Input
Amino acid sequence: MSDEKLDLPHNSPVQPTRLELDDKIKFRCHRGISCWNQCCAQADVTLAPYDILRLKNHLGIDSTRFLAEYSVPFEIDAHGIPGIKLRTDDSGACLFMTEEGCSVYEDRPTACRYYPSGLLAMRALGKPEDEQHFLLIKEDHCKGHEEDNLITIGDYRKEQGVEIYDELNRDYYRIILKKKSTGPTIGAPSDMSLQLFFMASYDVDRFRRFVMSESFIKMYDITDEQYDKLEKDDIALMQFGFDLMRQVFFGEISIKEREGAWDKRADERREILEFRKQAEIEEHLRKQEAARKAAIDSGTDDAEI
Ligand code: SF4
Ligand code: SF4
Output
């Protein structure tokens, strides 16, 4: 029934079972269980934008440093849409794993909260809206499935505090699904659009500098109150990034553009290109003249230049 799907958050060789909110799973994870920490010792955790906000704020560092120290990039699809995973050590263990458990537990990512279930965002053929289903992964090392505890997927999501993560990441998942489904018709995404996707989705502090830059202010008509909020509020900035991506990628206008700004920018670009071209011509002429003088000085003034 679906033409596009995004399996989140796990990449597992184990075939998952598809579930709905009311379906029950038999599972419990607790300290003292024989497999304690085994899932984190072989971690394959894909990160979504809100995960990164929570983690970088937990660690008290900016997003650029978080990405450099704690993440590795990968490509989400064949069009090169960039994704981010948690970095592991050489043995495959998550860098946040300790003997006592997860050192960032209160701000652990969506994938860790969901495990051993996961979110399955899908887009049915011909339908504009995405659908959310869930999956269950059973891996041999995980003994939580042998515990005597029945719980619905809905209650498990509440217990793990995952709802706020899904709510705040939902626009990001929708953009990926839409970009994947429109990709073949409009061609591969440009480098510029992939860079914007990466910065707005994952590197929110760099995105903030971009939004506060003079060239951005010249293009978009944003009030002082909005700017004030974007400067201080990571979540507002992340959501503004989703709006900007929808505007740039799909033409869904929600951020007011300044009248004539694109024409003015095109004119400025033309002027810059003209200036560069002129500078290149002058440099070429200067080199020719220098070579001619050198040839005269060495007595080979009839040499071909
Ligand atoms: S972030 Fe925490 S829960 Fe998730 S893999 Fe790392 S140690 Fe485990
Ligand atoms: S029960 Fe599963 S999720 Fe819990 S510690 Fe063991 S392997 Fe990890």
